[in-house]
């Protein structure tokens, strides 16, 4: 007999979904606004734009480092608890961002706020998957993609006028208010965590080793593209493989490893995570370089550039309903392969349009790239969640998200450096072609993905830890 403490809430799945998606929205929308507010922030805080740009770069690095930790914490201590704690942290440090007195305090507060936001992503995915039948998880994944894309649209459309009329601090005041609403709604409608959770200690040494490896790799590649062979990126790239070696050694000896073999032993987990790195590099690299091309080569103003790039995010919203139905009907593997192929062709066509300096061709490719991404990412996230036991969904989702984030950091740094300050079409056409190459490589990797339903039925029973007789 269930007690009132452990009985699930009698809340409809629609309310649960709405609460969780609102939480994701509130922790996502400031990112795109900040990309167009660097100059006003620098002027207000008497700083340099090159310093203030870390308001976007540092939080991205923090999310890449901490997301796997929060996914595992959710698996161990309950996803609802970690999700709610993430919203609280994001809200508190959003207030700190609004009250920042200089660039350093703003970067620190914004980074800590994004750490809280990172806790909401894998836990919200796990909670949504729990509320959805296994066959409908791709629909939940599509809704997550539509929500984050909607946040990006609002950031681009509303951000400029909001900063001009009220000031950049209004971004964070609004985030505090929305976080408060999301927190109250989530407390009321999300079901409590079941008592039958994984009773295992957190693998702190493994978490530290993974954090160092992720940070060293992403920061090293990102800064290498900007600073060249300077001491910081070189040191990071030296530390990264050492940290990976330490991680393997630690995980071999941990009684409850952060990365259990039962998760890493899944072919789909490895394939989807690897493909997500490539998709993040190609898609986000293209996302950031495109405005540089539109302004540097075609001479568009910032306002017109925003209007031209908005369809990329809007098309993800339009793809959401049909992406969910397609995944349920044809399976995640087939949808991912078709969408990956489509993304490759679209980014390739953008390279041709850039070479011809055709705004029409580039504009069409921008919209179609969002539509392809709107099919690809939900299929990857759903396949990742279906590749593991229910107890590991948070970790699996976090690995997919981290893969995308790592790829994004690498791609943004690399491709913006390759484009440089070019004012001719040639360098941008080459960069767009390279982003298409990333999408093609991701599609080729996905050829090794099994159908999630078949993979779940044939999932082998593996131990939690790496056997001692397996060499690192």
Summarize it:
With 472 residues, the protein is an all-alpha fold.
Task: Explain the layout of strands and helices.
Blueprint: H1 13-28, H2 30-35, H3 38-44, H4 49-52, H5 54-77, H6 79-98, H7 103-131, H8 137-165, H9 169-189, H10 204-227, H11 231-253, H12 261-264, H13 267-296, H14 302-330, H15 332-355, H16 359-386, H17 393-419, H18 425-446, H19 452-457
Low-confidence stretches: 1-9, 468-472
Question: How is the main sheet built?
Answer: none
Number of beta-strand segments:
0
Going by CATH, the architecture of the largest domain would be Up-down Bundle
Shape: globular
Helix percentage:
over 70%
CATH H level of the largest domain: which superfamily?
MFS general substrate transporter like domains
Radius of gyration: 21 Å
CATH top level of the largest domain is Mainly Alpha
For this structure, the CATH topology of the largest domain is: Growth Hormone, Chain: A
Whole-number mean pLDDT:
80
- Counting H and I runs of at least 4 residues, what is the number of helices? 19
Oligomer: single chain
Through-space gap between termini: 48 Å
Description of the structure:
The protein has 472 residues and is mainly α. It has three domains: 12-198, Growth Hormone, Chain: A (Up-down Bundle); 204-253; 259-472, Growth Hormone, Chain: A, CATH 1.20.1250.20. It is built from 19 helices and no strands. Residues 1-9 and 468-472 have low confidence and may be disordered.
């Amino acid at each position: 007999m269930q007690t009132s403490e452990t009985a699930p809430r009698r809340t409809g799945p629609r309310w649960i979904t709405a609460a969780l998606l609102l939480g994701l929205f509130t922790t996502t929308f400031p990112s795109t606004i900040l990309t167009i507010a660097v100059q006003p922030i620098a002027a207000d805080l008497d700083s340099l734009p090159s310093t203030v740009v870390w308001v976007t770069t540092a939080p991205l690095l923090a999310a890449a480092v901490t997301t796997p930790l929060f996914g595992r914490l959710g698996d161990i201590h309950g996803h609802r608890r970690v999700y709610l704690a993430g919203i609280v942290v994001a809200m508190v440090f959003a207030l700190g961002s609004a009250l920042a007195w200089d660039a350093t305090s703003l970067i620190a507060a914004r980074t800590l706020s994004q750490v809280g936001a990172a806790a909401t992503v894998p836990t919200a995915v796990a909670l949504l998957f729990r509320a959805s039948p296994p066959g409908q998880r791709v629909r939940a994944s599509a809704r997550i993609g539509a929500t984050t894309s909607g946040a990006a649209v609002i950031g681009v459309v509303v951000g400029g006028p909001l900063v001009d009329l009220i000031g950049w601090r209004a971004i964070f005041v609004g985030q505090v208010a929305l976080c408060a609403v999301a927190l109250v709604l989530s407390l009321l409608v999300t079901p409590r965590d079941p008592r039958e959770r994984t009773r295992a200690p957190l693998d702190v040494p493994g978490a530290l080793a993974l954090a160092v490896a992720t940070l060293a790799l992403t920061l090293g590649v990102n800064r290498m593209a900007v600073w060249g062979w300077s001491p910081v990126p070189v040191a990071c790239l030296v530390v990264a493989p050492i940290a990976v070696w330490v991680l393997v050694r630690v995980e071999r000896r941990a009684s409850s490893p952060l990365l259990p073999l039962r998760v890493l032993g899944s072919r789909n987990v490895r394939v989807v995570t690897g493909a997500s790195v490539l998709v993040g590099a190609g898609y986000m690299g293209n996302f950031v370089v495109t405005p540089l091309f539109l302004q540097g080569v075609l001479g568009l103003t910032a306002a017109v550039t925003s209007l031209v790039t908005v369809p990329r995010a809007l098309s993800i919203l339009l793809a959401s309903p049909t992406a969910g139905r397609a995944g349920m009907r044809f399976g995640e593997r087939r949808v991912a392969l078709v969408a990956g192929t489509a993304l490759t062709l679209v980014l390739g066509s953008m390279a041709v349009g850039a070479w011809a300096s055709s705004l029409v061709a580039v504009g069409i490719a921008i919209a179609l790239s969002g539509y392809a991404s709107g099919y690809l990412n939900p299929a990857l996230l759903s396949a990742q969640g279906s590749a593991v036991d229910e107890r590991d969904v948070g970790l699996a989702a976090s690995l997919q998200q981290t893969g995308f984030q790592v790829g994004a950091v690498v791609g943004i740094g690399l491709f913006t450096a390759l484009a440089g300050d070019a004012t001719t079409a040639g360098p941008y056409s080459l960069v767009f072609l390279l982003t298409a190459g990333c999408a093609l490589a991701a599609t080729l990797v996905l050829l090794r993905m099994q159908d999630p339903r078949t993979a779940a039925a044939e999932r082998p029973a593996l131990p939690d830890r790496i056997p001692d007789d397996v060499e690192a």
